[in-house]
């Protein structure tokens, strides 16, 4: 798909919503004819799906890359929460607004696929939380809700974050990572005793510097 069409579609879907955006709008914004737009995609739904899938896959790729540098399970948790929050300060519109499109607007088959992509991302985080629980670095009886709460909290950044604000992407992401640690009951004593990197670990430094109430 051409970059022009892609950008036009993301912008319009984000601003006007899925239902409020027509193929004619997208063609007009891309400076091409409606007939030409159908050379790129067979329907609005396919176009939406292509963008949504690409957005979530980009985010998963970013997460895999970030996780690949960490072996400590607490560090992996922090890095995932940080990356999730940071992503939503910069790629806000794409994932969020596309991701929040009402499922009833989509055909059942396509809605299932959208759910599956979201579930895959949630599952990635669930696995990371699971590692931390197993190591006793994280302590919560509510890991399924903790998972959703942390992801939704991060997604919400895109509703208010503006790059020109005093807060930087990094500081917001750091604070949100510390909030996430509090939600899952991060045990800094258990971590610092066991982790090979000890207080040098990214989990320990994030907690020491950004933990709520410190
Ligand atoms: Zn560690």
Largest sheet: none
Structural class: mainly alpha
Tell me the series of helices and strands, N- to C-terminal: HHHHHHHHHHH
Question: For the residues shown, what is the average pLDDT?
Answer: 90
Number of domains: 2
Fraction of helical residues: over 70%
Given the C-alpha coordinates, what overall shape results? elongated
CATH superfamily of the largest domain: Tetracycline Repressor, domain 2
Count the helices. How many?
A: 11
CATH top level label of the largest domain = Mainly Alpha
Description:
This protein is an all-alpha fold. The protein folds into two domains: 1-42, Homeodomain-like (Arc Repressor Mutant, subunit A); 49-210, Tetracycline Repressor, domain 2. 72% of the residues lie in helices and 0% in strands. It has helices at 3-16, 23-30, 34-40, 44-67, 73-90, 92-99, 108-134, 143-160, 169-183, 188-194, 202-210. Helix 5 packs across helix 11. The longest helix has 27 residues, at 108-134. The site of zinc ion has 8 residues, from helix 5.
């Amino acid at each position: 798909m051409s970059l022009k069409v892609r950008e036009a579609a993301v912008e319009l879907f984000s601003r006007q919503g899925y239902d409020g955006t027509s193929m004619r709008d997208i063609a007009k914004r891309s400076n091409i004819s409606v007939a030409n737009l159908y050379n790129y995609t067979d329907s609005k739904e396919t176009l939406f799906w292509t963008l949504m899938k690409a957005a979530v896959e980009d985010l998963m790729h970013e997460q895999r890359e970030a996780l690949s540098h960490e072996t400590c399970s607490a560090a992996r948790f922090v890095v995932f929460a940080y990356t999730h929050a940071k992503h939503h300060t910069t790629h806000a519109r794409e994932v969020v607004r596309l991701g929040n499109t009402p499922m009833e607007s989509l055909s059942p088959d396509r809605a299932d696929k959208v759910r599956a992509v979201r579930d895959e991302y949630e599952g990635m985080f669930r696995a990371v939380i699971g590692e931390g629980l197993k190591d006793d670095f994280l302590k919560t009886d509510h890991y399924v809700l903790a998972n959703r709460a942390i992801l939704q909290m991060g997604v919400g950044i895109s509703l208010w974050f503006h790059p020109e604000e005093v807060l930087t992407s990094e500081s917001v992401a750091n604070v949100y990572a510390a909030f996430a640690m509090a939600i899952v009951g991060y045990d800094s004593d258990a971590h610092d005793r066991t982790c090979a990197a000890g207080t040098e670990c990214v989990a320990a430094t994030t907690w020491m510097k950004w933990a709520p109430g410190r």
